[in-house]
Amino acid sequence: MGFSCGIVGLPNSGKSTIFNAMTSLCVSAQPYPFCTIEPNVGIVPVPDDRLEQLARLLNPEKLTPTSIEFIDIAGLIKDAHKGEGLGNRFLGHIRNVDAIAHIVRCFQAGSVPHVYSDIDPARDIEIVETELVISDLEIVEEQLKKIERVAKVSKEKHGEEQEVLLKIHSFLEKGEFVDSSEFSEEQKAFLRSFNLITTKPVFYVANVDEAGLNGPLDERLEALTIAKGRKAVAVCGKLEEELASLAEDERASYMDLYEMNELGIEKVIRVGYDVLGLITFYTIVGKEMRAWTIPAGTTAIEAAGKIHTDMQRGFIRAEALSYDDFITCGSEHAAREKGLIHVEGKEYVVRDGDILHIRFNV
Ligand SMILES: Nc1nc2c(ncn2[C@@H]2O[C@H](COP(=O)(O)OP(=O)(O)O)[C@@H](O)[C@H]2O)c(=O)[nH]1
Ligand SMILES: [Mg+2]
């Protein structure tokens, strides 16, 4: 699995349209495994040009791309925490994800009512984020109370946990998301274990009209994205839905018509990798060629563990060949003759696009 991504937004912002288009598109586009665990959970194979290029040269029997899990939940409205609309209990479904994609309505469409009558992406974002903050605040306050109760009756210490919770609380009570860079490495482990939505990276998906696809973002959204230090991408949900229903060649000419050089899913995945600091490496084992997702900074031995615990336990060395060198040489044999395959130890930091052979012995 590459990463998991929860989808939030107001009702009628296009969450389900984009989710359905993205999850169905990849199925028809590529013969890769896809499954729907629940109606609102979709696993999407990551479109990967490099993997396809490698496959063209190597003709593996099996090609396994890395994948991303998307979870679509019901929309939040103002005062959802008080039970307005469908309430906020659906947030429980996205507490374990790695990142949050916030779908923001920028398309006009008079036929689709907006919950707050007019188009105002910045206002909409504040409404949804306030509900996310309040929901986390309730959890943090509950947890703090529990720690205090326990401390009264036993001598059990929760010093570090309490400290982290209080620090989180100080962000939330100001109505802000939690800035994880202000926590130490040990504290970050606690931060993750609480599964709070406001501690996860967020990016915005502006659901725009066809005409807005190649133009600048809505000014208010742009300003807010910069102010919050986030990223935003523009996608047209309606168009993605239509593209999803077309055969591949028709889709390509349709995309040309709208001057699109990539699909919405590709943009969303790219920004997701970016905000999570992820990279991809490749393995060729037997007849299978496979792409793997890891955080930048992962060492060879950790990457080996991602493939198989035995490989980590019995790690001897890694042989690394960069994607570019492989393509230039055309074959592994030629790359080896030119000395482009590097023998590396456990501490080697894997680079994006590396083709790795792990030598191990158990
Ligand atoms: N014109 C237009 N309509 C859209 C777009 N995206 C979604 N819609 C429509 O908006 C309505 C609500 O979309 P839906 O995906 O169910 O929103 P959700 O409540 O956020 O899940 C549906 O009728 C969609 O067809 C878009 O980009 N343009
Ligand atoms: Mg929906």
Q: If you compute it from the alpha carbons, what radius of gyration comes out, rounded to the nearest whole angstrom? A: 23 Å
CATH homologous superfamily of the largest domain - what is it? P-loop containing nucleotide triphosphate hydrolases
Oligomer: single chain
Structural class: alpha/beta
CATH fold assignment of the largest domain: Rossmann fold
**Which geometry do the CA atoms define?**
flat
Tally of DSSP β-strands: 12
CATH architecture of the largest domain: 3-Layer(aba) Sandwich
Helical content stands at: 40-55%
The major sheet is characterized as:
6 strands, mixed
Bound compounds: guanosine-5'-diphosphate, magnesium ion
State the end-to-end distance.
Answer: 25 Å
Helix segment tally: 13
Low-confidence stretches: 26-37
Side-by-side strand order of the widest sheet? 2-4-1-5-6-7
- The CATH class of the largest domain: Alpha Beta
**Helix/strand order:** EHEHEEEHHHEHEHHHEEHHEHHEE
> What's the rounded overall pLDDT mean?
91
Question: Your description of this structure?
Answer:
This protein is α/β, with parallel strands linked by helices and 362 residues long. It has two domains: 3-275, Rossmann fold (3-Layer(aba) Sandwich); 297-360, Ubiquitin-like (UB roll), CATH 3.10.20. It is 41% helix and 19% strand. The protein has 13 helices and twelve strands. It has helices spanning 15-29, 49-58, 121-153, 159-172, 185-193, 219-227, 237-244, 248-257, 264-276, 300-307, 309-313, 323-329, 332-337, and strands at 3-8, 41-45, 62-64, 67-72, 99-105, 202-207, 231-235, 278-285, 288-295, 315-321, 342-344, 355-360. The strands form two sheets. It has a six-stranded mixed β-sheet with strand order 2-4-1-5-6-7, with helices on both faces. A six-stranded mixed β-sheet has the order 3-9-8-12-10-11. The protein is flat, with a radius of gyration of 23 Å. The two termini are 25 Å apart. Bound molecules: guanosine-5'-diphosphate and magnesium ion. Guanosine-5'-diphosphate (GDP) is lined by residues 9, 11-17, 75, 107, 109, 112, 207, 236-238.
